[in-house]
Batch of 3 targets.
Target 1
Amino acid sequence: MRAGDIYYNNKIMNFYGDSFHVTAPGYSYAWTYEAVNPNRLVVSAPRVNAELDKTYALRQIKLGTFETTASCQLVLPAPTSKPWPTSCADVNGAAITGAIDDGAVGYLHLNGKRLGNLSAIEAIPNQAILGFHTSQVALLGASIAGEIIWNAGARDGINGNVHLNCRTNSLTDCFIGRFGWLGDRVSLEDQVANAAFVEMNMLSTQGYQKLYGNEDVAFPIRYAYPNCGPADKACVQSKGNADLSELDIDRMANYARWLGNPTRSEFQVALPDVIAGEQVFRQVKCDTCHVIRKIDIVPEDTMLSKDFRDRLATRVAQSANPFLSYLGTDLLMHDMGYLSQVANAAQAIRDQNGVVLPAFQNYMQKLRTPPLKGLRFNRFVTESHKNTKASGDPACDFLLHDGRACDAIEAAFLHDGPAIKQLGVIEGLNGLSSKQVLQLRAFLYSL
């Protein structure tokens, strides 16, 4: 989160590092969709699905009125370098709404995702991710290629390989961010601790004390204080909702590793429409970012825990040659055009290629490429395979980062950004016949 902006994730609002929980008692909000501002679009071509004879309407989130509690209490003076708020009037509904309307504040809706693919994400070797980035730089240029997010973090928990001071943006003292829509956590242990903290206000003081002692750390990987900025007195005086031990975190991470790494059905992948659909997928260049090619596993170059690394090392020694394929992600961060713009801007923020100008980086939040493997299971979680809508439209799988796309084809057509423009993805999708769209759908839901 950048100082001066709010990124809205259904849980917290952050102002200059101070925060208030808008889902706490006394706080509420409303939001709707509205037609996308053309100035936010990178690719302005209509999105026309030949299979359904449907043109997709592009929309952006519009936040409505905020209601705030009358029992506002502040810690004053605020112990921050940019003191805020100075009074409760700074955080009432009118102030928040005004800040959003004026473009001083940005927001982003982030949906939770079905658990799955987590150990596979850990198993992608660091060198493979670096290779994805190098390939995209060669194809698209450095300003458009996906970005690697370098982070502090730990492999094998806090007693394993730990980098607390990520300075070089390299594997020397950093890890590659792999988890979350914002790619800000490097291992499943770190992801578990962070999700518990951000979503449920759970602490992990045992890990914090081990890593940091009594030091006050701005961006820790374990958490000793409640999830609130120092201006919110009631939150500051609370002790969180629970306190996770490292054993708790390790157990939850191991549980997550065993969940939902699907194997494709040998029968389904042999179907003619699925085979043809893979060719369509490559033809429209979706595989540039949603990488489906074979990835060889080098156990020691992964973020898997030691037990899993040792198992893979045994398989490699026995010449089993384990590999990953059809994951559908490069684990890089991408500018998604109107989907990534998080704040209103009175002026153009992009150059002629759709790249955000340096002065306006705070108006945009890049998003990590989500894996496609397991898409077929989304339909059974949401029951969208029953196609229950009277209009004949498919029921909703809630795809993309905010759940706006109801199936994989709609998600493809709603893509935007400078890479989408340079690759001609939307034009390629528009040029598909109804049969080709059906084949693309068959391939995506075979994953």
Note: DSSP finds 15 helices and 16 strands in the chain.
Target 2
Amino acid sequence: MKRIGWLTVTVVSLAVCEAAVGLSPVVEAEETVYTYTDAKNGAGPLWCHGSTCLVRVGERTFATGLETILEAAPLNNCRWTLWERTAQGWSRHFTDPMGRTREPSPLAVLSPGQLWVSTNPTRSPAKPEPNGGPARPEMVQFDASVGGGPVATWIPEWQGAPRFTEHSYRSLAADAAAGELVLFQNLDSTHAEWTFRDREGRWSARGQLKWPWGAEYDVPQPIRVCYPNGALRGRAVHFFGVCDIQEPNLKWREYKHALTGQHWDYDFRQLFYTWTPDLTQAPFRAWTEIASREATGGSTAVCDLFLGSDGAVHLLWTERAIDERLRPNFFPGAKQSHSFHYAVLREGVVVRRQTLMESTEDKPGIIVSAGRFQPTPDDRLFICFYAGGTGHDGQSVSENRVLELLPDGSVSPAVRVPFAKPFTAYFTATPRAGSAPSRTLELLGALRDSTNTVSYARVRLY
């Protein structure tokens, strides 16, 4: 038995070495999908970055876009579009002819080739209210195998009659193999409404996800969670988002108001995770605080969530240690840092934490954003991210990189993805939205120094 164990360790080590030295991403495509006009409504084509606007259906790739209605006033002054990548490039597959909306429309795919678009049109399309107003969530279904327009538009069923608005912060997740969907949509600052569509086509479960309670604040209040990553498998649901509330520290709020003249300033300092083993049978478990920069007014940002084949939940996020505007008056000894973090959870418990990269005042280095998981069919797990800051040679860096999380718990060296221009923010074709794991990394998003353009790239990892 010892020898078998020793042989197992040796095989894993050899595999680790091969993976570490063999990572050589090849860029297969870099393309413009569409251009847009800034709607000046506080949103934009990447605003729903907790979900995705890019999916893969077999060998076909689809994306949703956002088009500004020039004659309409904010906030509901956009319409959604559906695009497909063909041999001739990207072509517009569909344009919403009716609804006006504020936010982009997340996508999901179910087997065999059902496309689902989450929309949130205003309820007064003929005369949109200038400051938003009520909205009605819809799910628009397409059949990717036959093309053409929508085959159906569904009105999700909710608990009671929620009064949704143009600010939805919604999250869409799919279990492609089971043919099931879950949709979350925020309601005011107290909770998210959720609804579940089962494999029989019924909205068979619905409820509310109450926010964590900020008992320690100067004025205790719910901690609204936004830009969430959601995952659904076997009716288990995992939910990972960032705190998004007005500055709760009254002294800091007053100080920042004096600096900026603004009466609002939002707090993104805490990350929270919750889950349920069966959305139709069991309530969500107590919230787990994954990270906090509350003490020094810093910030956190959700990057991605991946649900492994063994049930492990993998999380990615970034942290900025302090708000430098506050440092002289409130924590003069604090040092700034920017860090990139990874964690693994099982049954809601964090079993592993790791800082992947860090840049500090004393030792400037890479500053990471837009981290995304890329799983492959043979259970390898890669991370793609945007790298800014300072390289080992002291020169400024602006590029995309990719690394691999290795079977023994270590991490391969990060290598540059040789794009002509780096992506600073982007979606991927994630399994959370029903796309299959792939050796090909696909990105949809914003390029550095490219204004009002949404671009696509395809990268072969190995």
Note: The first helix runs from residue 2 to 22.
Target 3
Amino acid sequence: MLKDPEKREIYDQYGEEAIKEGMGNGGGGGGMADLFEMMTGQRRGGGAPRERRGEDVVHKLKCTLAEMYKGGTRKLAMNRKTTCGPCSGTGTKSGRPATCQSCQGQGVVIKVRQMGPMIQQVQMACPECSGTGEMVAPGDRCEPCQGKKVVPERKVFEVNVEPGMKHGQKITLRGEAGVQQPGVLPGDLVFVLVQQEHAQFQRKATDLLFEKEITLAEALCGFTYTIDHLDGRQLVVSSPGGGEIVRPDDWVCVPDEGMPLHGRPFEKGNLYIHYQVKFPAALGADERAALGKLLSLGKQADVDMEAEMTEPVTSQVVRNMEEELKSRQSYFKRNRQAYDSDDDDDDMPRGGQRVQCAQS
């Protein structure tokens, strides 16, 4: 028997040919395939419809470099929607599905009109349920969800940040995004890690970079200091052995004290220390003499000031070479413009005012 009342009515009035020609199937003309579906209530070929799945919910999770080094568990409270418990997601007190009886849950109805010898079918939204396919009787409406099938929920999630995880890495909680629509499977809750800047360490893949300022005396004579590592340990670092002098911008490597490898926390990168040598602003004559004697400096080369082609010059310290180069570029640009504008005037001086070295 035909299960759809509307199609059964068409079959009774106009026979099997009307069914084959597509009456009652939305004008699609499905023929015997639709007849098979109407009589059995199953899809031809036996395939079950695919379950729909809601969209994933993505949140950014700020993490310190120490958390990414050691790992840890973060507890986060999130608001979401979940299936109403008292009605089991039906929206009714009785627990029966709130299916509209007029359209059998389809949301549309088909009206058949006869105009002389012609038969016309019209598909329209069901007037009883306004096209939703659902109709909950007022007396049967579930109180907690008011017939909406879902209720708000605040849930605390535990997010495990594993040692060695990095910026942009994702942690996925399957099916925890909450119910976005009744009858649709919930999506995933995805946390994207955002690494915060550290005051002392800079991360480069699995390595760590550390800036250290030392005095000139320490660079020449040696030093020992401690570094507070990301896991709470104190690393005692000494100057290179063998009397080696540390020069400005030198780098030293401390093996296996960098970031752990994700999935292999006992394997680590390296720690690289960048040394900046702080020179004294000035030395007195006695200090220079004592330092020169201590360092066994030789005498300065004798210069014959009376020799031909000898010219004394002055020198200035450039503290910021980047700014110095910018000033020089600006000077040469103005210089070229001055030459271009003065090509026809022989009485005007060439070029412009000289730019001295930038001083700090």
Note: Residues 228 and 234 are 5 Å apart (CA to CA).
